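Exam revision sheet. Question 4 asks you to relate a sequence to its structure. Input first:
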Amino acid sequence: MTTPFEPTAERRLHPVSWLFVLIELLMQFAFPLVVLLLVGRGERSELWPLIGAGALVLYSIGQYFTYRFRIDDDGVVIRSGVFQKSVRHIPFNRIHNVALHQSPLHRLFDVAEVRLESAGGAKPEGQMRVLAIRDAQAIEALVRGRGPRIALAADGSVAGASRVLLALDTSDIIRLGLISNRGLVVVAATLGALMQTNSETFTRFLASWTRMMLGWTRELHLGTTGTVIGAVSLLLALMIALRVLSVALALLQFHGFVLSAEGRRLRVERGLLSRLRGSLPRGRIQAYSVREGVVHRWLRRQSLVVDSAATEPSDRKRSLRDLAPVATPGQMRELINELLPRAAWPLTGWRALHPLAWRRQCTMPMWLAVLATALPIWRFGAAGAWGLVLIPLLYARARVWARHAAYSEERGLIAVREGWLSRTWRFAEVRKLQALRLSQSPFDRRHGMATLLLDTAGAGPREHPLRIRYLPEPDARALHARLAVLMEGAVPSG
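Answer key, structure tokens:
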């Protein structure tokens, strides 16, 4: 049995929505309130924050009673505001992603927060806190179908064909945690925050802990060998703890990960305690990056990250960038060929870089190593020349990098391959390119090489740019001219 979702008159949010608005507002004042409760001395002035909290309760209830939304044939109309009223009409064709978020509290009340996101802004076009999960799924279906007559199944799910492209079980998530090492990132960010908050206290704590460990070592009379073994054991224990933390974070973020296709849209659902659900039109994907690090190769896995034209809010983790967090090479091949039916992955027509690309890759690092070693040599003499051992390592690294780096242009794709131990394939459809730029340093001009920079929409700040480095200059100019012609003749994607 299905229930149609028809155009409606204005509707309110779920009756408990005021509670979620209140919780979010109180989180901004949580620290002062905790300090008041713990260290308050009973003075009257300390009661003012409690009066402010009461005002927040009234404000959140007022938001519930003044927020209305209506589904029209061509979009969503939202009316909101306690003191300043506003009416916003959001056409369906402007909404490129509908993100559904469910925290444990949302799941307890069987509700979800809905964010209507466009391609051009860091803030959502519309935000509904909160709707019944059935209504949230219906609005998601409306955006996908670009119309109001969408049927829901009896269990509240959207009726219609949906194909699962990738589903991760618990063992896959554990592998992802071992690969990502997110625990190290969290620990480093925490230490950085502590140092910025109170660097003097943190420094004293670190010095005290170090003295305690050194004193404990002397009391055990371990000797040099025992001290080294103990230090190595401690280091191994820390590494294992970081990996365990990484696995726990991966389980929280990616548990129940499912990537599915519904027509021309991709939908991702994931999360253990907080469930995130977002969708993205295939046409909004601008570039792809396949990664295969050392741990990837040990576990025989790869990862796929995409750049999309939709700009995600910075305050929410609803990213669709991790389209395939971890997958076998076979699954990766099938997924990419599904997303790019004209391509045949993996590509075969790889072309080498300039014969002197290795020299361009290692010249600057070698000079930096020499300059960094000059001061120790001047201060300590020959004993300070230890930094020069980096030069043969940099030379070997550059040689290996140049031997494995290549580019390819075939079947409407432009691709770059780099790395040996850690490999990266970055590629995009030629019709998605936004700009081309030919770059040459004095070294490049002297040796007849050039770098081609390829710009796409939606590239992340931490993502490697799509560029083909150190090409023979005639090849670079010919490729630049050929891609420019293809870009001019391409039809803009929607």
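Marking note for examiners. The radius of gyration is 28 Å.
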